[in-house]
Amino acid sequence: MFLIKDSKSPYYQLVYFRNGKRTKISTRTSNRIEAEKFKSTFKPHRKPLPQPRKISVKLSDFENEHKSYIRNTYSENYLKKAVTTSFNRLKYYVSDVPIDSISTKQLDQFISSVYAKSKYAALLYYKTLKAAFNKALIWEYLEENPFCKIKSPKVPKSFPNYITEAELIMILNSTATQLCKDIFTMAFYTGMRLGELLNMKWDWVDFSSQVITVKNSKSYNTKNKSERIIPANKKVVQILERQAESGEQLKNDYVFNCYAGIKFNEDFISRQFKKAVRAAGVDEKIHFILYVIHLLLL
Known about the structure:
Blueprint: E1 2-4, E2 13-18, E3 21-26, H1 32-41, H2 59-70, H3 76-94, H4 104-117, H5 119-138, H6 165-173, H7 178-190, H8 194-199, E4 205-206, E5 211-214, E6 228-231, H9 234-245, H10 248-251, H11 266-280, H12 288-291
Antiparallel strand pairs: 1-2, 2-3, 4-5, 5-6
Helix pairs in contact: 2-3, 3-5, 4-5, 6-11
C-alpha cells in the first residue's frame, strides 16, 4: 500500500491491491500525517468503513475557489461575464446554500425560469455551472453532478450577422472620435477581438513585415492562451503609422489608450460601437464580437 496525490483531488489517495486488482480509496485529508494514520489503520481485506462526508461548502465559497482555480486558464472578461454572472443568478434563485443541498429539481427549475426570459442566457448558465459542478465532483464536494440529469437548453440556430465594407463606412461616419474609428477599422480588417485590440502593445507590431503578432503577457492572456500572427493590410498599417507619428509609441506601450498609460475600458468601446451602429441605421443585432468575424484583407 502507498499514498498518492494527484490533480483530480485535493486529498491523499491510498493505493492497494485486492485480488490482484489495483484499487484506491480517498483518505479524506490533505494532511500527510493524517493520511499516514489512515494508511496504518486501513485493512484492505475488510469492507471499507463509510467515510465521513466533507463539511458542506457554500455556493459563494465554492464560486471563489473555482474562479481562483480557472483564473490562469480563462480571461478576466470570461470570469466576469460568464462565471460570476452564472453564480450570482443561481445564488439569487436558491440563496447561498451548501452546494450538496441543491437538488436536481431546483436546478432544472432555475434553468427553465431563465430560459423563459432568455434562451441564450439559459444555455450560458447551464454550460458554465455544469463545468463548475464537474470540478466540485472531482474535488469530492459532491457525489454526483446534478446538471448531468438536466437536458441542455436548446437555442435557435441562426447565421451570424456579417457587415459589408459599405456598412463599415456608414458606422465610421456615425462615430464621433477618430480613435474609435481607428479601433473599429482595425477590428474589421484584422478580425482581432476587442480585448486584443485594447491590450495590443507596440512590440506586437512589425512594420517591416507588416504583421501583428497577438501575444500573451503577465497582464493579458488571449482566449485559450493562443498566440497568432495577423497580416496587416494597407489601411491597418496607415492607422498604426498614424498612432506612432502622434507620439503614442513614446508615451505608452499600448497602441490605443484612453490616457497615457491607461487602457480603454472594453465596455466603453462596445457602447460606442453600439451607439454608432444605431446612428448608422445598421442591423442592431450586430455587436463587436460578430463585427470582427469579417476578415476581408485588401
